[in-house]
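Entry 14. Ran structure prediction on the chain below.
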Amino acid sequence: DHRDLHSFPTRRSSDLSEAVATLVHLAERDVLMVQFRDISKEDKVKRELKRTESRLKTFLQDLAEGVAVLGPHGEIRYISDSALALLGAADRKALGRNFLDACDERSRQRLLEHLGRTPPSREPYSVHYHLRRADGEWRWHHATCRYIELEDDLSGHLLLFRDVSEQVRAEEARRQSEQKLEYLARYNAMGEMAVAIAHELSQPLAATRNFIEGTAIRLGRQGEVDPSLAWGLDSAVRQIEHASLIIKSVREYVVRLEQAEQRV
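Output, structure tokens:
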């Protein structure tokens, strides 16, 4: 009969060993059999892995990008600390189980179209989406996504995303500014055209009024004028005067005037 008694590390010089002691019952007497195994390399690998893991965790925590692995329906299979910070969540529970629950309807459908492809795309692609953070604020994200399969059974769509809300707002402000400039350009063009039209119309209107008044004078020299003819000519002159006033008001409205201030 024999059984394990102890398993403990021992150090000899600079090597690290693991010893397993086994009690063996013999006919003459009981003996203790000790087996040694050099674990210095194994221990070194463990320490290197632990150090690398600690560094990676620190780097991922301070990244400006978030890292997440999503299933075909948006379920969260992995998410980094930096991603939780971008999403305004203190922990995984505060975020929820599905990444798409925070997105608006258009973004949700856009992401589902990519995540649900069969077979999944292993080529990286870019996608924009609009989501609501855990604190209630709506933000824009730009993400690069591709399908991965790791040896530790972690598979899904690797999502590397960053917050681009400020860029989106700046682009929207630039677009609105361009629209305003375009409107002002059209407005200035219309003003110049109105001035030109007003100038061109004032000449034939003045000539028409002169012709009508001259006709009325000539009719008066020939004798008594039919009252209906006189009324018609006077009405035509009044309409021409009205049109001239309209053209004058349009010209005064669009003409560029220097601002003058005076204390009164």
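The longest strand covers residues 138-149. Will compare against last week's run tomorrow.
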